[in-house]
Amino acid sequence: MKLRYYAPIRLIMAIPTILILMTTIFFMMRIIPGDPIRIMYGDEMPEEAIQRIRHEIGLDRPIYVQYLDYMNKFFRGDLGISLEHKTPVIQKIKEAYPVTIELTLGGIFLAVVFGVPLGVLAALKRGGKIDNIIRFFSLYIYSNPSFWLGLIFQLFFGVILSVLPLSGRSPVTSTLHRVTGLLILDSILALDFHSLVQSLEYLILPCLTIGITRVPRLCRLSRAALLNELGEDYITTARAKGLPYRTVVYKHGLRNSLLPVITIMGGSFAGLLGGTVITEKIFSLPGLGRLLIDALGGRDFVMIQAIVGIYALVVVLVNTLVDLIYAAVDPRIKF
Amino acid sequence: MVKMQETKTMQQITAALIVIAIIVSGLSYINGQNINSNIATLTGTTEALESRVEDSSDIIGDLAEVVGVLGTSMGEIGESVGEYGEEIAAILEKIEALEEIEEKSARYILWEEWSRTIYAGVILNRAFHPDIQIGRSYLDRAITFNRAAKLVFQDQYDMGKWYPYIAESWEFKQNLEGEWYIEWKIKPGLKFQDGADVDAAAVKYCYERSYYELPYREMNREPYHIWSSENTWKRLEVQDKYTLLQFTPDNAQTFEPQLLALYNSLQHGFIFSPASTEKYAKENDPIESAVNQVGYGPFTLVEYIPGERIVLEAWDDMMVRPPGTGPSRSEGIDRVVIKIYADSTTMSMALQKGDIDVTVGGLLKSDVISLLDNPDITVMVAEGVGTSDCLAMNMRPEFAPLNDIRVRTAIAYATFPEEIIEKALAGYATYAQSAVHENFPYYKPVFEPFRQGTEEERIAKAKQLLTDAGYPDGFSTDLWATGGAGGEDAKVATIIQAQLKKIGIDINIKLVEVGVFRDMSRAGNVPMYVNGWEPDYCDPSTDLGHVLSAVNWQKMNGIVGFNVTNPELNAYVDELLMRGRDIYDPAGETAERRAIYEELQDIIVDEMLGVWLYHNDNLDAKRTWLKGYDIYATKTYTRPFWDGYKDIPDDWETTTPPV
Q1: Is pLDDT at B9 greater than 70 in this prediction?
Q2: For labelling alongside B512, which of A138, A242, B260, B555 has CA 20 to 30 A away?
Q3: Would you say residue B305 has pLDDT above 50?
Q4: Nearest to B235 by CA among B172, B185, B177, B181
Q5: DSSP per residue, B22-34
Q6: Of A46, A172, A282, the CB nearest to B343
Q7: Cβ <8 Å between B553 and A44
């Protein structure tokens, strides 16, 4: 099957996955204990008021009616009114998603920038001191939970050395006009170099926290993949032909060894997206993760359903995209 | 053959020589020609050069003249320099000085801006909404009391004493139909921040919006105002421009603390410009539009970035009021920047670093410990004004033996609040001898008899009571706590578990999420838990009403099962509570009220309705450079930014501000 036929089929196949996820979330939110209205408004609210609100929101309707209404609205883009924030959910998500996108992409970038070169270096120095050091370092980082690393980074870089900001997205003196909400992009669009530098400063620690936990895996994978490629016959042939060592390693070996890296990064995306929850809490970033945590505590099921639905959508789309990229990059892949 | 070859070779050589001779002759000829040509060229060139040399000589001569002139000029300049050198040097020095001043000025400006700005940090425990009447988070409290005003101001430095604020006076009266009402006299001449009049109509509009409109919006729904409205007024009438009649509810006809507190100390009852609200804070407007809603307060909200920060600016036109009688125009501060944090540890690090000057809510006691040794930080403590936490025991028969008063009394003997305060709360709570706060009127230390004697004596008494109840070897039960394993509730539960173990009671701690806990406790299905309530005003009716009343909404917060196991006593308690409110005398304490509230406190221990452990302290921390600002002694709903100020440090010339 050609790629141009496979791609739409793959995308269509993602729809049932999303539907199943959303259905699961819908019923889970109604099964777990804790009346959302009572939690929202406290014990001092008169029962009549609670019942009235429950009726107005539609929580007293049959479950299947609520489900159909929910699915109908979701696919029309109506994500409902947040019980906690008392505003349309879509509005809160619009405020929050740029933060999460910046954080996730920054984390991926740092993970790749550190992980792949370290893996290559370890492969090329296989068995030597450098290889051992890198592997030890990877294991050490892998052993530490990201939230702990985040706090250590804050303490060391933010308080002791005082070279990077502790939390937030921008200084209080920032005059950057936010267009997209992505501060890096907004700075570039505004040709505001000062704001760009400031935005990057604020992103370093959170992205490092979220990305560094992916470095060990990428490092080990890159190392193994490169070693595997360097053992192939075509590499031997290339060397025999007299090609320079660097050409053999980087142009042939490394390029081919990146294929599994692409796959892993796509799979890690979901983990990174979920990892933003903790990181956003530590660094006080108002992203989707923090919005979700707050919604869970307050039983704001409208918000929870919407965010989880969006997460599911993004993860499925990214994985689909990775499959398509993989197929496009590796002509051996057939559908 | 050989001779023939030799001959041939000689012939070849001869031919070659002839060719070479020809070539050489030819070359010589050509060369000669070239040489002649070159000679001619050279001659021409020489002549040209000679000509140029002559020209150059002229030029050099001219140059020499110029140099001579220059030399003369330089000499003259040199003389001038010599003559004005000192002045030039002085000018250069001035330029340097000006540059230094410019640098210092820029630095001074930075420091001045910093000193006129309070940087505050807050934990966003609930969603924030910029509408003045919506939202119950720490952030809402910190901001709304600075943006808007109420009819009266409660001085929390002075036991919650009421002072006139928007109103200049109030009086309880009764009409011909026997209805009680409060006659409010609004101060004439006050203006909101948008220039509109502060009058009786505005007050009525604000109160009625809170009750009739907000709870029924699809968006911006705020039903929390319903109960406070119903417990504060049943009808409002505008008598004239500056007179408002507030008809009081039947359950508190003249009970001033409730009537004033529920609308005038909590986040309800703020007065704001109806015009700005109609224009901005409407149902279908985006949330950010409520930023432009204005009230009458020392600050105006000027910037709101959701999840990141809020900026307030001082309103210079506000009247300056004497201290202790309400917010005043801010004299020392132009701006307040409130940064929103999601984590108490991060906020405390920000305080240590100097990114913020003060915390305004959400600081955990465990984080306070790390600040104590820092000489640049002051921990502000309002002792015992927080929640009054009690160990509640379910008295329903299905939770036997907790329904046995001897068992509950044994638990009272075996519980040591001082250990809980020290180990779980870092010392930041006040030992409770009653459900009523110690500094409130009619306080009686009813738990004192159960906390006298040595630990061994008390343990022995507890064991004896358990034996009398038929449990000489103790029993097992569950203690529910909310939050994570490292949270405060879990620590308290762990210590209680260890204490009760000594008398044979095996406690199984169940950590549950708040939502689950609320559901189960409302259904009366939780055996034991630690719970508390923060008082609304400085009167025992609030401490006792919340836990003892069985008739109103508060019953689920209170003693579990009391209304089931002893309905007659429960009804009697409700009568006493109502009576205590009815005979309130604003002039001071009365013997009859004392008798009522002391009897209620006695009932608590006679029936051992719960074991009161401690009254929580309220905490915040600030940098020592922030002066004039302190949290209130009796309540911390408000944040007096208007009193704060900072000095520019002496080393400003060589340092830069922390923010």
Answers
A1: no
A2: B555
A3: yes
A4: B181
A5: HHHHHHHHHHHHH
A6: A282
A7: yes
pLDDT for B322: 65
Q: What is the mean pLDDT of chain B?
A: 83
pLDDT score at B496: 97
- Judge contact between B606 and B569, C-beta under 8 A: no
* CB interface of B with A, residues 95-154, below 8 Å: 119, 124, 126-127, 129, 134
- Tell me which residue has tokens 């053992």: A231
Whether residue B309 lies within 8 A of chain A, CB to CB, comes out as: yes
For B531, phi then psi, to 5°, come to -145, 160
Which of A70-74, A93-97, A283-287, B417-421 is least confident? Answer: A70-74
Please report which residue ranges of B511-566 form alpha helices under DSSP H: 514-522, 540-548, 562-565
Q: Rounded mean pLDDT of A194-214?
A: 93
Residue B34 pLDDT grade (very low, low, confident, very high; cuts 50, 70, 90): very low
- When CB atoms are compared, the residue of A34, A44, A299 closest to B554 is A44
Strands of the B429-431 sheet, one edge to the other: B429-431, B610-616, B388-393, B528-533, B475-482, B505-512
Residue B128, phi then psi, degrees to nearest 5: -95, 145
Reported as a pLDDT band with limits 50, 70 and 90, residue B118 is very high
B13-21 long-range contacts (CB < 8 A, ≥24 apart) are none
* Burial (CB count <10 Å: 0-12, 13-18, 19+), residue B82: exposed
Residue B81: per-residue pLDDT: 59
User: φ and ψ at A37, to 5 degrees?
Assistant: -70, -40
Asked whether the beta carbons of residue A168 and residue B339 sit closer than 8 angstroms, the reply is yes
Tokens representing residue A50 in the block = 């609670």
Average pLDDT rounded to a whole number, residues B142-147 = 85
Q: What pLDDT is stored for residue B8 in this prediction? A: 57
Residue B197: CB partners within 8 Å, gap ≥ 6? Answer: B190, B191, B241
Provide the β-strand partners of residue A209: none
CA–CA–CA angle A97, A100, A104 (5° rounding): 140
Contact (CB, 8 A) for B247 and B173: no
> SS3 of B129, please?
coil
- A20/B contact by beta carbon, under 8 A: no
- H-helix or E-strand spanning residue B391: strand B388-393
Is B362 within 8 Å of B332 (Cβ atoms)? no
pLDDT tens, A280-319? 999 999 999 999 988 887 788 889 988 988 888 888 888 8
For the segment B443-461, the average pLDDT, to the nearest whole number, is: 96
> What is the model's pLDDT at position B171?
94
Question: Is residue B74 helix, strand or coil?
Answer: helix
ipTM of the complex: 0.87
Residue with tokens 């539009």: B289
B430: left (phi over 0), alpha (psi -120 to 50) or beta: beta
User: Residues of B with CB below 8 A from A34's CB?
Assistant: 513-516, 518-519
> For the ranges A72-86, B281-295, B490-504, which has the lowest average pLDDT?
B281-295
**Amino acid letter at B213?**
E
Strands (E), chain A: none
Q: Which residue has the tokens 């005038």?
A: B264
- What span, in angstroms and rounded, lies between the C-alpha atoms of A182 and A101? 8
Q: What confidence score (pLDDT) does residue B39 get?
A: 46
Structure tokens at B313: 């600016």
Q: Give the C-alpha separation, A110 to A208, whole Å.
A: 7
Nearest by CB to residue B343, choosing from A155, A171, A284, is A284
Dist. CA A202–CA B287, nearest whole Å: 27
Contact indicator for B334, B340 with CB cutoff of 8 Å? no
**Separation of alpha carbons B638 and B627, rounded Å:** 17
The candidate with the shortest Cα–Cα distance to A307, out of A37, A60, A95, is: A95
SS3 A97: helix
Q: Distance between CA B133 and CA B148 in Å, rounded?
A: 10
CB-based contact, B520 to chain A, within 8 Å? yes
